[in-house]
Structures are given as structure tokens and as C-alpha cells.
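Aim 2 progress. For Phosphoadenosine phosphosulphate reductase domain-containing protein, the working sequence is reproduced below.
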Amino acid sequence: MYTDVIEEFYWVALPLTTQNSLSQYQPEWQCWEPDVEWVRQPPQDAITAPDFFCFYQPGMTFEQFVREFAEWFSQKRPAAMMIGIRADESYNRFVAIASLNKQRFADDKPWTTAAPGGHSWYIYPIYDWKVADIWT
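Predicted C-alpha cells for this construct:
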């Protein structure tokens, strides 16, 4: 998939913990949690085996997974982690794009953010996704 522009592509559908601002009874939830009925199934070519990544821990957060994935993938070499987000769903996601205080790859690339390890970058080329863009 996308071999003309992407050397390696990982579509991850592992159980990851994330905040749930829609419920005071369940402040966190896990996407793709086992034994829970989901409206949609993971894409057929998605990574769903928990042992695929040596760093994966059950219950880890999405943010922790992204950091660990960047370290694992880059192997301390320069690398770009392309991440698709729906910025209109979360203030934190919006700030990942709009903040003037973050370290960017370049001043004219507001959709880039330096990863914590210092040798890779989070690239958000699509940050205005809607649910319909992904699932329909």
C-alpha cells in the first residue's frame, strides 16, 4: 500500500487506552478492547496481534504507544512518523497542530512536531479527518 511514497506502512489496531470525555463513569476506554463488541472491525491488513511489537504493553495509552513506536521504528536514526488525527475531537490534538511553542521540523510546517527522543518527528499531514473520512 502506498509503495510509491511510503517505504513501510503500519496500520495499527491494538487495544490502546485513551481519555473519554463523554462519560463521567468511564473516564478512560480502550479502542479495540478484546471481548467488546465494536461497531466496525479493524481493517483487514491492520496489525492486531499484541506480540507484533516488542514494546507493546496491555493498557498502554495511545500517546505512550506513539512515543514507543517512534523509538522502535527510528532505531535512533532520523525518521518521520505520519499520524492521522481528527483535531476537531480534542483540544490536545488541535494544539499538536496549532501550538507556536513546540519544536517543528521547519517554521513553515506547523503540522510537524519533534518527538521526545530527539531524532524523529511526528508528521500530521491529515489533521482534519472526520469519522466519515475513515469509516465510510
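Helices lie at 62-74, 91-98, 131-135. This observation will guide construct design in the next reporting period.
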